[in-house]
Each structure stands twice: as structure tokens, then as C-alpha cells.
Amino acid sequence: MADTKISFTGRGAWRLLGTSSLVLALAACSGLPTAPTQPVRYDLGVADLAAPAANAAAASVAPVPLVLAEVQAPGLPEGLTAMFYRLNYSDSQQLRAYQNARWSLPPSQMVEQRLRMRLGLERPVLSGKDNVRPLLADKRSIAQLRVTVDEFNQVFDSASSSRALLRLSASLIGAGESAGNQLLGQKVFTVEVPSSSADAAGGAQAMARAVDEAAAQLSRWLQGYGR
């Protein structure tokens, strides 16, 4: 029996070649690895810059400028933006991090930004790099505020219940011309805010409220020292 030969010429050959190429291309694409999921990034949201009602009226004496030193977070690696949480009901001494959620900035930088905005509503706030002195007629010294972030994480008391835990340590340092720097006051501020949901989004919202509350408490504390 003679062999049967099939020949494709002209347009038919080009159509067959194009179809085969498409099939091969699709098969090759199906074997490519999927792109990694980018983590969701959270910040502290929009700050409420409305002046407190008790201080809305202009004071008869201008407030003394306050120097806010760079906020430190000694318990966290420098530059780390991981969102940490702790399971109180299972190995509570282990600090865990969300895999698919991050802060937009390191916690110390976010806290410093919010403190500058909040404290600046009631007094001039300078940085440690500003070389500013009071007028000769003003005998009040410019104090420096040093803040460290000791706790900045989400705590789960159960699988369905969590809260933001924020702890700040503040030291108010006065610049004395004769005796050098003086410790005017020191206080630890601890704020806990329940999360609306037991996940990263709920923790971020609760932490934003905790930072705002801590800033308000810190401002009232400074006023007790005439700052």
C-alpha cells in the first residue's frame, strides 16, 4: 500500500504554524511562577489637626518652644517596618510578624511625625538640629523632650479578640546655663485600644487611635510643667 502524503501549502500552512506557535506559547506561560503578593502597607491615617477646645483661645503669653528629639525604639531593629503581634493565649513571650502586612514607615518615625503634629497645635515644636535660643528678655529656657517607643504591637487575647498596645517613655530635659541639663520630669504612657477586627487592618486602626491618645496625654503632661 502506497504511503499517503499530506501537503500544506499557501495560507493553510501559515494558519497551522500560527496555531501551533500559540499553543506552545500558552503552554510555556502556564509553567511560569506566579508573581509574589505584595504586602499591604498601613500608616496612622490622617491626623486631626483641630486645636483642643481648652486651648482654642490665644494665650496671653507665647508658649515656650519645645525641642522634640528623634524618637527611638530600642526594642525594635532600626528601619524595620514589620507589623508585630502577640498571642496572649499561646506562647505570649513570642513576638510574631504579619507576612502580608507592613507599616509604611518604622514605628519610631510614625510616632515622631504624629507627635510633632499633635504637640505643635499648642506650642512651637523644634527638632534637635534647630539651633534656637529664647530672646534675651525671655528668661524661660527651651526644654527638650525625649521619647522612646517601648511597645508597639497588637495583642490577641483570643483568636477573635485583639487590642493595640502602645507604651512610650518620655523624659523632659531642661537646659540650665549654670548646672547643665536638668531632668524636669519623666513618665511612662501606656495606651490600649480594642481592635475592630482581629487582623492587621483592625490592629492598624487601633494603633492609630492609641498614638493619638498618647500624644494628647503627653501634651497635657507637658502643660503641667509650663511647656
UniProtKB/TrEMBL annotation:
Residues 52-218 form the ABC-type transport auxiliary lipoprotein component domain. It comes from the Bacteria. Gene3D superfamilies: ABC-type transport auxiliary lipoprotein component. Pfam families: ABC_trans_aux. This is ABC-type transport auxiliary lipoprotein component domain-containing protein.
